[in-house]
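Long-time lurker. I teach an intro course on protein structure, and each term I like to show students one example going from raw sequence to a predicted 3D structure in token notation. This year I'd like something fresh instead of my usual example. Would anyone be willing to generate the tokens for the chain below so I can use it in lecture? Attribution to the forum is fine with me.
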Amino acid sequence: MSAQRRGILWIVATALLWSTGGIGIKGIADSPLKVSFYRSLFAAVALFLLLGRDVWGRRRWKSTPAFIAAIVCYGGCLTAFVTATKWTTAANAIFLQYAGVIWVLLLSPIVLREPMRGRDVIAIIVALSGMALFFVGHFDTQGVAGNAMALVSSVFFAGLILSLRREHDAAQSAVAWGNVVLALALFPFVRHDLALTGKSFAVLTYLGLFQVGLAYVLFIRGLKHVTATQASLTGMLEPIANPLWVFLLLGERPSLYAIAGGAVVLAAIAWHTLLGEPVSEFPAPD
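-- Reply from a regular --
Happy to contribute to a lecture. Here you go:
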């Protein structure tokens, strides 16, 4: 199996882990900011213990712009997404966040020197069209502020992918420190409500260790072998897989529109992947 194929499989595993977040958050009564705080706190602890010196022992990346941008974009993406979810529907938030693949497509040639190709454009347009089908009947045009915040989240999401791809040697450190910075930033807002039930502790531990910590380790591993556009497109498996968990665990059946939309997204990802060229053909980011 080629390095590119392995990279894509790491991104697929990442998207599946990310997609379990919705079912976990729905299962507890804690506020979004409290969930984000503990999720980042547990993820940071896990990453520092698991990766050791690979996280805190480096020196050469200490003040590079890409490293700092990755930390800022990580915290901005998660915070903006939580806020968007609070101000608008979850469907709006996740659909608009994945508009970030457009920013990745447009900025990759500038930031990473990865060429924009016709099949990239076609695959993204088809995948977004499939996602639009997926959310028929669930998209609410009334939550203007929440929708705007979701679009802000999409910009940070794109910035995170681009900066992690560019700063690949220190990407794990950027994510670990991003969780630390986000937890510290959220602490003042949740410090009066830190108590957790046994159920909340178990769910938030899972979210921190696996849905965030392990997921980003796999994502970074995969991002070394695929282009930023391929990574963001494959990541669109996340909103497709989310209702699968809801169906398996809660018995809620997806609509025919959702099934059709999911099929379109999967077809777009498969077509783009099977026609893909080895990432080694592209100039490596400076």
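Some talking points for your students: The mean pLDDT is 81. The first helix runs from residue 3 to 19.
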